[in-house]
Amino acid sequence: MKVELVDYIEKINSSFIEARKTYAEWYNTFIEDDNRHLAELKATKKDYTTEGYNNRLAAILDEKRVHAGKIAAQIDRFNAHVAKLRESCKAEFKDTYSITPRSLDMAAVELIKSGILTDAELLDLAQTEYVNNATMLRYIGNTLQKSEDKAMQQKGAALMARSQNNLHLELFDELVRICNSCLRPEHYDAGGRLIDIERAYELSNNMEAELYNNAYTEIKNKALQYSAELSD
Q1: Phi and psi for 131 in degrees, rounded to 5?
Q2: For the chain, N or C: smaller number of CB within 10 Å?
Q3: Is 149 helix (H, G, I), strand (E, B) or coil?
Q4: Max alpha carbon distance in the chain (Å)?
């Protein structure tokens, strides 16, 4: 069974869209309602005693904090969901994109060690037979880096870079990081300063409009090169 990294990227996107939809609905329903109550209270301040006004103000602000907390909790659920997706992704791609002895093709290793293959044949072997085998890519890359041909040395270095552990998870994590920038669950600005939920919501909308769609498309395109074959 073939597993595609892009499937995981699309699942993150679907979860993000749902989280953003709920965030917007809850904000526009509850926070806007709280703000309307605050505006009405301030407009009718003269109708209250000082104690009555302060008590009503405290009650509205408490309710607003509860609503803001519920929004943050919903976003926490998004992160809990994608954390489970990450564990599944990590498990399914473990053998393909991790360096493990069981991923060595010993017949190929012996052939390479014999020295009968040219550098070009080694490179072709890596690019055709082991594109999704990080262990063999690293083995062949290491061999090519010892070539007397500088161009082949560079090709070997590229294979070594391609074989680095968990590059697929870096794409996964990058998309989740961008999702959180657009969700602003902790209501902090880019400088780490605590802000109110109105400013957080404004920033989340700006981040989504300016960053998310382009970043998602770029990450999805990069993810197309990652797949794994699982035994049924």
Answers
A1: -60, -30
A2: C
A3: coil
A4: 95
**Euclidean distance between CA atoms 140 and 145, whole angstroms:** 9
Residue type, 163: S
pTM of the model: 0.71
218: left (phi over 0), alpha (psi -120 to 50) or beta: alpha
Instruction: Please give the Cα distance from 26 to 88 (Å, whole number).
Output: 30
Put residue 3 in one of left, alpha, beta given phi > 0 → left and psi -120 to 50 → alpha: beta
Q: How many helices (H) and strands (E) does the chain have?
A: 11, 2
Structure tokens at 142: 């290491």
Compute the radius of gyration of the chain from its Cα atoms.
26
Contact between residue 130 and residue 155 where contact means Cβ atoms under 8 Å apart: no
* Single-letter amino acid, residue 33: D
* Rounded mean pLDDT, 142-149: 91
What's the rounded Cα separation, in Å, for the pair 17 and 230?
29
Type of residue found at 128: T
Residue-range domain boundaries for the chain: 2-96+166-229, 99-162
Q: By the 8 A CB rule, do 11 and 99 touch?
A: no
Q: Find all residues with CB under 8 Å of 83, minimum gap 6, and list them.
A: none
Q: How confident is the model at residue 93 (pLDDT cuts 50, 70, 90)?
A: confident
Q: How many CB atoms lie within 10 A of CB 218?
A: 13
* CA separation, residue 99 to residues 72, 91, 137 (Å): 38, 14, 10
